[in-house]
Structure formats: C-alpha cells, structure tokens
Amino acid sequence: MAEEKLPSRSEEFSEWYNQLVIKAEMADYAPIRGCMVVRPYGWALWENIQQALDTRFKATGHVNAAFPLLIPKSFLDKEKEHVEGFSPELAIVTIGGGEILEEPLIIRPTSETVIGYMYAKWIKSYRDLPVLINQWGNVIRWELRTKLFLRTLEFYWQEGHTAHATAEEAQEETLRMLDVYADFAINEAAVPVIKGIKSHKEKFAGAVQSTTIEAMMGDTRALQSGTSHFLGQNFAKAFNIQYLDVNNTLQYCWTTSWGLSTRFVGAIIMTHGDDQGLILPPRLAPIQLVIVPIYKNDSERGSVMEVVEKIKGELHNFRIKIDDRTEVTPGFKFNDWEMRGVPLRVEIGPKDVEKGSLAFSRRDNPGRAGKSFVPQSNISFTVKNMLEDIQKSLLARATEFRDTNIHDPKNYDQLLESLNKGWAFSWWCEGDECEARIKEDTKATTRCIPIDQPSESGTCIVCGKKATKKVYFAKSY
C-alpha cells in the first residue's frame, strides 16, 4: 500500500500545500466554487485554536454572543467606506420563501453593521459601557482566487466587537486584543508574528486604524494572520450608538472590531511543514502522541498490548491515538503519522517489552536524529518535557527562518532584489505614490508599520524624502 510522495516544498510550495491539506485530511473541496469542507482532523485543530483564544478572550472580560447571518442591505449603505470596501465581495439574497424580498439581504462578510444596530438599542448610559462581545461564526466573501484555508468564499472565524466611552479606551482595547493574538500565535502555534499598523491603503474598510499580526510562511510570503481595528466613531455615528455621560450629555461611543479565522490553520501548515508533511505544534495538535504497537503473532500481541494499555493509562492527560490497524505495515503507519504532523510517535515491540523501554520519534526532527529510547517508568514526565521541547524547537526554527529572510536594503534596486527572496524592512515616507510604485513594480505590499520603531529617522527607500517610519514590505497570500 504505497503512498505517492508530496511535491517538494522548496520547489513547488503551492502544490505541496494544496496536496498536503487533502492528503492529511484537513479539508476538501466543496461542490461550490471556492468553498471548502473542513474535515474532522482539520476541525479538531480549529477547535484547539478556538479554545486557546476563547480562554484568552474571557480572561480579558469578553463574553460570547451570536448575531444573524443575514444583514439588511441598507445597513451596509450607512457607512460609506465600509460598503465601498466590501461591495465586490458581497453575496446578496433577493428571494426568500419563493417571494422577491422588499429589501435584499447581505450574507454577512463581517458584522459591524448589524452589531452596531443592536448596540444602539442596548447602550443608553455610561454605566452600560464598555460592551465587550465576541462571536464565533462563519462569513461569506465572494473571493475570485481561492485556496483552502487561506482564502475561501466561506470561512470560519471569531469577530470581537466592543463599544467604549472614550477614544483612549477603544484604542487600548485595539492594542490589547492585538497582544492577545500575538501571544496566542507565538506561544500556542509557535508562529512568530510581527505586530504592527496597516497603511491607510491596506486598512480595514471603515476603520480609523487597523493593526495586524504578520507571519512569514515557508516560501517567505507574508500572511496577515489576525487583525484588530480602531473604528473611531464611524459606525457609532452611522448607527446612532450613543450614551448619556456623567454630566447627562449625549455622546457617541467609540468602537473596535477584531478577528482571526481558519486562515490560521493554513499559517500553521505553511510555517512548520516539511517534505514529509505537516508538523503540528504540540499545544494545538489534535493528536499529541501516537502509539504504534509492533508484533508478529498473537503471543507477541498479548504482551505488547498489555504495555500499550498501561502506557495509555499513564498518559491520560495527553491527546493520544493508538494505531492498532492490522491491514497496513508499521512502516506505512510511521509515514502516515509523519504526514499528519503528530508531534511524538511511540513504537512498542517485543524487545521494548523485555527491556522496559519505549522507542520515541520526534516529528520536528525526522529520521534517526529524532529517535530515542526511554524507560517506561515516569513516562508522563518524559512526554511532557519532550512536547515542551518540540514546542520551543518549532518556534526557534520558525523565528530563525523569518529573521534570516528579512532584509534591510539600502536603495531601491536592493529593495527590488530583496522582495524576490523575502521581506524588506525599509524606511518609508508614508506616501501613497511610493507605496503604489512598490506594489506595481514587485506585487509586494506594505505588510505593517511595526509598533516598536527605531529612535532615529531615515530616508524613504523609494523617493529619498525624510522618513520617520520603517515598514515591512513583502509579497503575500
């Protein structure tokens, strides 16, 4: 039972990714163009992402709610920049129950408008603030070019929406949630991200300011992995979200929104994977450890499975899978679980039973270099330490790769060269013309203006004018 090899990651990255998502049973193509079916293995990873984020959201005072999938078209028309930004991506319902609707309904591309309408009903006084609500759901954006997880017509996400009494509180919330995303990405997914501010041209439609976490994928392209937006009073004025302050004066609220989607599943795949397949960070992996029993006959099976059950019981705090399939060889199983990215594999055969040992293989270090033999005693402590070490190893490796592929060009020609092989970190005058020229010449965009800036100033990499900000430029997904 032979499996075809994946394409080379270094030579055919895009096709490697496409095939891996299918082979590892993360997702499949739906019968609707641009849509996907998230399979149980992929959904288990998304559930672990949800849990890690949801815990963080609740720790910062947020609560979950649910809002409608359908939005009256007139709602989007109320915020000019918002409707202009999303119009090309809208799916519109015009018939319901066999009747033409009096007003078309938009299948939500995002929920600022319908949530703004509800906040206007609920918020009356400064005592009602802040409102800190998150929802888990799905949205539709009519994308022309799609890729499983990274960009699909329908995708799953969370979107937080908050209302505040002052601009300062809303701005603090925007950056707080950006920090939450960065903490999750780095510490749970082992994806090193850079926090920063989007340029005016790249910001969310309707926002005053958009912040982002940007990650470098294994082909050096950038992936916007989560965003947090300061909406100012744009939606508050559009939907009349007002409150009476302590002086009994009517004021408009200040609002934010922030979101992270199933795109992050793609980020994990493309950051850590190799030619053998997925490499999943232990803290999020659906299966942290797979046990493969090895035996030739019923006699060996009895003694081996006895140890397997004993080990399984001692490791009940971990997410474990026992692969006791009889129709495939141990070698096939090893390759299969490597392809699925399980962090640790444990092989137990008759010799291991005799010696009181276990054979461990680390997915982050395939082959003999990642293999070790450990005593069966105190196995829970051993597994815990191994998984923690794998988590650290993945983060360190991804960080080193990212930093090695970020360049600091000194002139425009060097910038063009840098963007053919990675990212560029350069001075920028913040002018639209310079930003547009880079995009036209290279297809790269401004990914983010990092929040932590150098203390000195410089000259714009494009026009040579004085610049006070350094920005990351990169080609993206």
Task: Produce a short descriptive summary.
With 477 residues, the chain is α+β, with helices and mostly antiparallel strands. It contains 14 helices and 25 strands.
Overview of the structural elements:
There is one protein chain. With 477 residues, the protein is an alpha+beta fold. It has three domains: 13-272, BirA Bifunctional Protein, domain 2 (2-Layer Sandwich); 289-384, Rossmann fold (3-Layer(aba) Sandwich); 407-474, 2-Layer Sandwich (Translation Initiation Factor IF3), CATH 3.30.110.30. 35% of the residues lie in helices and 28% in strands. The protein has an eleven-stranded mixed β-sheet with strand order 3-7-8-14-11-10-9-22-25-21-20, sandwiched between helices. It has a five-stranded mixed β-sheet with strand order 16-15-17-18-19, sandwiched between helices. Helix 13 links the parallel strand 20 and strand 21. Helix 2 (40-59) crosses helix 6.
Q: Which structural traits does this protein have?
A:
477 residues; alpha+beta; BirA Bifunctional Protein, domain 2; Rossmann fold; Translation Initiation Factor IF3; 3 domains; eleven-stranded mixed sheet; five-stranded mixed sheet; 14 helices; 35% helix; 28% strand; globular
How are the secondary structure elements laid out?
Layout: H1 13-23, E1 27-29, E2 36-38, H2 40-59, E3 63-64, E4 70-72, H3 73-77, H4 80-86, E5 91-96, E6 99-107, H5 112-122, E7 131-140, E8 154-164, H6 167-187, E9 193-197, E10 209-216, E11 222-232, H7 234-239, E12 242-244, E13 250-252, E14 254-261, H8 263-272, E15 289-293, H9 298-314, E16 320-322, H10 330-339, E17 344-348, H11 350-355, E18 357-362, E19 371-375, H12 379-404, E20 406-407, H13 412-418, E21 423-428, H14 432-442, E22 445-450, E23 458-459, E24 466-467, E25 469-474
Parallel strand pairs: 3-7, 15-16, 15-17, 20-21
Antiparallel strand pairs: 1-2, 4-6, 5-6, 7-8, 8-14, 9-10, 9-22, 10-11, 11-14, 12-13, 17-18, 18-19, 21-25, 22-25, 23-24
Helix pairs in contact: 2-6
